[in-house]
Design goal:
103 residues, mainly alpha, 4 helices
Length: 103
C-alpha cells in the first residue's frame, strides 16, 4: 500500500514538472518571437538577421549571458537595452526554448 502511494506521488510529481517545463518553453517561444528573432532568427538567421542563431545553445550559457546583459556586466548597447526588459522568468523561458531547438 505504501509503495503504491509513493509511486503515485512520484508519477504525479513528474507529470506536473513536465507540464511546467512545457509551459516555460511555450512562453519562451512567444518571447523569442517577440524580442529575439528579429536579430537572431529562430532556428537559422534570416537574411536580415545579422547575429548568430541561438538554437541549440546551452541553456545555462544563455541564461548567464542574458542576465549579464540585463545587469550590464556584459556590454552591448543593443543587448543591454533588450535584456533590460526581461524578468528572470523570461530569461529562463527563452533559454529553455532556444536550448531545446536543434540548430
Amino acid at each position: 500500500m505504501r509503495l503504491s502511494v509513493l509511486t503515485g506521488s512520484l508519477i504525479l510529481g513528474l507529470v506536473s514538472a513536465q507540464s511546467v517545463n512545457a509551459a516555460s518553453i511555450y512562453a519562451g517561444q512567444a518571447k523569442a518571437a517577440a524580442v529575439c528573432s528579429q536579430c537572431h532568427g529562430i532556428i537559422t538567421p534570416s537574411a536580415e538577421a545579422p547575429f548568430p542563431p541561438l538554437a541549440g545553445r546551452d541553456m545555462d550559457y544563455l541564461k548567464t549571458a542574458l542576465k549579464q546583459y540585463r545587469d550590464k556586466t556584459r556590454k552591448s548597447d543593443i543587448m543591454n537595452a533588450i535584456a533590460g526588459s526581461l524578468s528572470d522568468d523570461d530569461i529562463g523561458n527563452v533559454a529553455a526554448y532556444y536550448a531545446k531547438l536543434k540548430p
